[in-house]
Amino acid sequence: MWTTTASSTWGPPAPGQEEALRDCYGGLPYDVTTPALLDNHLHPKHQPCSPPLEVTQEAGEMVFVPSGWHHQVHNLDDTISINHNWVNGCNVANMWHFLQQELCAVQQEVSEWKDSMPDWHNHCQVIMRSCSGINFEEFYHFLKIIAKRRLLVLTKEAGPGKAEGSEGTGLGRQQATFDIGRIAEVLASVVVHPDFQRLDTSVFSPKPEDLLQQLEETVAAATSL
């Protein structure tokens, strides 16, 4: 996050500790300093833990928040900030887990219309996309694009740093192999998910199962060298 004036960022001392802040409805507080957290009826899981980390960010400075770390920001003055979310081989599985949770939440919210709404599962995908910015179909295409770029790095025609989408990044064979392995692990979970199987994948190119097989074979060949 980059800001033009100072701001204060709060967050739990480690991923997972935010679970102790959930209220009786499963929601997280908007403010980790609120006295309402002391209400045992509203926050039955609240327990003493390490105090949250606090960082004061001055104008022009950048704060990197690792994947999985919950945080909140207090602007100390009128502020313009630029935020960028990132996905790579280390946290792509987290993204897939998040999308599954989002779909479950949508399905639960509209469950009473399941029997009366034609194409209910497709509508859930549409609603999830409007809330999260992506659905299962788009997530597959996202994986496919990244996988293709990593596969180019491992071909004889494209050496490290020369593949499409990786020029100038110094992307090498080792990182490409790692990313392909992580994508293959996630894709293996995607293709067997019941809601993904309800999609019309006959128009996908390549087919999800074919791409998965290619990725697994590539990883096996690369690790055997």
TrEMBL record:
GO cellular component: cytoplasm; nucleus
SUPFAM superfamilies: Clavaminate synthase-like
A Pfam family: JmjC
Domain JmjC per the UniProt entry, residue ranges: 1-103
Single GO term (MF): sequence-specific DNA binding
Record-level GO BP terms: positive regulation of translational termination
InterPro entries: JmjC_dom (IPR003347), JMJD6_ArgDemeth/LysHydrox (IPR050910)
Annotated catalysed reactions: L-lysyl-[protein] + 2-oxoglutarate + O2 = 4-hydroxy-L-lysyl-[protein] + succinate + CO2
PANTHER family: 2-OXOGLUTARATE AND IRON-DEPENDENT OXYGENASE JMJD4 (PTHR12480:SF6), ARGININE DEMETHYLASE AND LYSYL-HYDROXYLASE JMJD (PTHR12480)
Assigned protein family: Belongs to the JMJD6 family.
Protein name as catalogued: Jumonji domain-containing protein 4
Organism phylogeny: Eukaryota, Metazoa, Chordata, Craniata, Vertebrata
